Amino acid sequence: MTTVLGIFGDPVKHSKSPRMWNAAIEHLGLDARYLPFHVRRGTVGDALVGMRALGIRGVNVTLPHKEDVIPHLDVVDDAARSIGAVNTVRLEDGRLEGFNTDAPGLVRSLLEGHAKVRGASVLVLGAGGAARAAIVGVAQEGAARVHVAARRPEAAEALVADLGGALPCPLTASGFDDLEGAFEATELLVQATSATLDGSPHAQAFADSLPMGRLPAHATVTDLVYAPLETTVLRAARERGLRTVDGLGMLIHQGAIAFELFLGLPAPVDVMRKALAG
Asked: What is the Cα–Cα distance from 60 to 258, expressed in whole angstroms?
């Protein structure tokens, strides 16, 4: 019987996940198929009832369902609870289990890119869902401290207040008005806003506003945006001679972790990367 996997989202037709997953499935010769499911906002509970009834083995969950899905699950893992979002749901013995693979996916991507995470001073730009996953990931991997900066200081402060008691390293917060000192103390910079997305009219201005020259020479810069692959922030870091890690690695590795959860097999990461690059 064919194992059915998929992704729930609204919209979902733009998702690169089916291409990546089906390439991996075909490479391993598995009797499985990964499908996109357009699940409209507010109906993810109904979709999960259908998932259980049809025996769909697992689904990835993307916007706008990552938070709405949680009350409909039987089990939610600790990382997902800390982040407040689920991006992976597995059907196991009739129970729906929720995970968040974004945080460990980012860490795998950073380690693959030879970035220092354990013992590092980390600066995260942004206070949304991507920033939240990044903070949890690097903190659980052993970062020495994490500073969160956002355009609205109150958003950064609220995020730090919410996460601070649950993570094993100190968290601090600020706005964007005084980044120079924060940059000087940073060994790993995580760009987690949408400012550098392809087509953003402010992408270059955003990069130009950052005091990239204040980062230490051994710092690593990563941008969670993967379209474009080299964002304005990564280009500025590269021009300074800094190590960079693009956002495609996080997409690949969060999918690879979900692959292992669903199918119990190591994911062919190189095949998944090649499928996305094609």
From this structure: 8
